[in-house]
């Protein structure tokens, strides 16, 4: 049994998943107006430019929101587990798992730091834990 579901990779998101394999958290920056965006998209929602570049995030951020799913139970997760919406220092948000913390201690605004975890040989995912 797999330990995580594999993501669907498209030409628009391939750079992101390749970055994770290299232990780099990449986000898009519009080549037209400089706006950062996540999730990856082919067109800038602000200026409609199709030109963009990938920049590396510092991996630092804060918890914007979080949930602890209880149902449905997936055999590849240890319960309870924490799904967090992380606001990166660069200003964009992304969804990830929060680890290495008692669920009762999780608070919005808490500083966190990315780390990378390998699953099933080739799959590398971003995970977050308390900073410091």
Automatic annotation (TrEMBL):
Instruction: Tell me the superkingdom of the source.
Output: Bacteria
Residues forming the ChsH2 rubredoxin-like zinc ribbon domain are 17-49
ChsH2 C-terminal OB-fold domain segment(s): 56-117
Q: Name one Pfam family in it.
A: OB_ChsH2_C
Q: Which Gene3D superfamilies match?
A: 6.10.30.10
* PANTHER family referenced in this protein's UniProt entry, alphabetically: BLR3430 PROTEIN
Indicate what this protein is called per its UniProt record: DNA-binding protein
Species name for this entry? Mycobacterium cookii
- Please spell out the taxonomic lineage of the organism that makes this protein: Bacteria, Bacillati, Actinomycetota, Actinomycetes, Mycobacteriales
């Amino acid at each position: 049994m797999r330990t995580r579901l594999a993501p669907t990779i498209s030409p628009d998101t391939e750079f992101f998943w390749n970055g994770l394999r290299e232990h780099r958290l990449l986000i898009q920056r519009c080549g037209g107006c400089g706006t950062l965006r996540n999730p990856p998209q082919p067109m800038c929602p602000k200026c409609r430019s199709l030109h963009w570049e990938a920049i590396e995030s510092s991996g630092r951020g804060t918890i914007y929101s979080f949930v602890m799913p209880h149902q449905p139970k997936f055999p590849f997760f240890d319960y309870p587990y924490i799904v967090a919406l992380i606001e990166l220092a660069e200003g964009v948000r992304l969804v990830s798992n929060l680890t290495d913390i008692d669920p009762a201690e999780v608070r919005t605004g808490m500083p966190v730091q990315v780390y990378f975890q390998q699953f099933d040989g080739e799959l590398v995912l971003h995970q977050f834990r308390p900073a410091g």
